[in-house]
Write a structure and sequence with these properties.
Order of helices and strands of chain A: EHEHEHEHEHEEHEHEEHEEE
Strand content of chain A: 25-35%
Distance between the termini of chain A: 52 Å
Largest sheet of chain A: 5 strands, parallel
Oligomer: homodimer
Number of helices of chain A: 8
Low-confidence stretches of chain A: none
Chain lengths: ~240, ~240
């Protein structure tokens, strides 16, 4: 049977692709991190749900794969199914559950859904970097921030801070300021497409003090990024041709 | 009235978000690059369409904005509305059409939809870089490729080649090979979600010779990316915890 690893977008029903909706409808059992299964339950109340708290990724994915050997099962992820999400782990654990067919269903990751809230920040080349050092060593994150800044790419930062990593965004801003002007246009969006959505456009010099959390996505512009009527916009050169 | 700048995903009806579908249904007039309006016309035949060929971006966006002053209009983009797409230009030209309200509708960009075809290549930090030097100087693209490779990020390459840029992918592979092993797992997907979809997983040493075109998205893995049952998978460390 099928294990759909479903990226459901930011969380609203409308932010989901039609494929994601169809995949969930095709399943009796919906599995995932508890915050995400609760979002999905609002839209699909008549399903069986199984969730585990944060950090129990392996248990969750193994359970989903085991169930998918005998019935169609969805493993739901916010945003995309792959970007900081579960499709990779499902493939890694696949060998123990050969009767499950794994079908990744792509979704709108926060760099895109948050971008649409702010305007059009990621029109040109960009990097997506998570500031969480739980699964990636801090030195590696630092190198990626340095390189993205050196190359004047726009950057979308995921997991900019949490209770345990309260100072990570400040640290990242320090690295950015080595290469980017303090006037670089930045922005952030909290709770994209969910209750309490909130967004702000501000210069890089003020970003370190922004009130962000685990449900915030941060955008750092490139040299050309500008503010147009309060929107964060990176041009791509069409206008000057 | 409204100008929805709609990222409609790879091109299939199912790859569209419910927001994108609703936005198009809310409009009488659909505008865009002719390849894209033809894709949308299949799903929404009873609309008025206006399209311009490639390179006439400014004319297309100005027409869409002018129409949106008096009726709801959609400007359709494949993938996302912002990534190498039209939302930025719409905001730039907005001042001449103040009665139009611009609403970006995010969509699944090819890095994500193509990723789902290949497996889960972009599980961790990644860069999205276009090899088209029509709107970005080649030196800037080179720097971005260098920096992404140095930082061992996964990379999604857009516009890897065209008739005029037949050797661009070869050039990009040369830069990657300065920093990444020739065994680095790579992949590409042609015509994602459309007729003639085709994909391949192959080592970086063979990527330069791959038969790619303007409708191909190329994926270059990081040091940890591996092949599992023919799928391109970048782990994120969940398994080893």
């Amino acid at each position: 049977m099928k294990l759909y690893v479903v990226g459901f977008g930011a969380g609203s029903f409308e932010g989901m692709t039609i494929s994601a909706k169809n995949a969930i409808e095709d399943c009796g059992l919906i599995t995932g991190y508890s915050v995400y299964t609760e979002l999905i339950r609002e839209h699909f109340p008549h399903k069986e749900y199984f969730s585990t708290p944060m950090r129990q990724e392996r248990e969750r994915v193994e359970y989903a794969l085991s169930q998918a050997e005998t019935r169609n099962t969805a493993l739901v992820c916010s945003g995309d199914c792959s970007v900081y999400a579960m499709a990779g782990l499902a493939f890694e654990l696949w060998d123990k559950f050969p009767r499950a067919e794994i079908i990744p269903v792509a979704g709108v990751t926060a760099a895109l859904s948050g971008g649409a809230v702010l305007g059009a920040p990621l029109t040109n080349d960009f990097a997506v970097i998570s500031l969480s050092d739980i699964l990636t060593p801090k030195e590696k994150i630092e190198k990626r921030l340095e390189c993205a800044a050196m190359a004047d790419m726009c950057v979308a930062l995921y997991n900019p801070s949490s209770k345990k990593r309260a100072d990570h965004l400040k640290w990242a801003c320090g690295i950015m300021l080595k290469y980017k002007s303090p006037d670089t246009v930045c922005g952030y969006v909290k709770n994209i497409g969910r209750d309490g959505e909130e967004s702000m456009v501000l210069p890089l010099s003020e970003l370190a003090e922004a009130d962000t959390d685990m449900f915030t996505t941060v955008f750092i512009g490139c040299a050309e990024t500008k503010i147009i009527n309060g929107k964060m916009v990176t041009p791509r050169g069409y206008r000057i041709e």
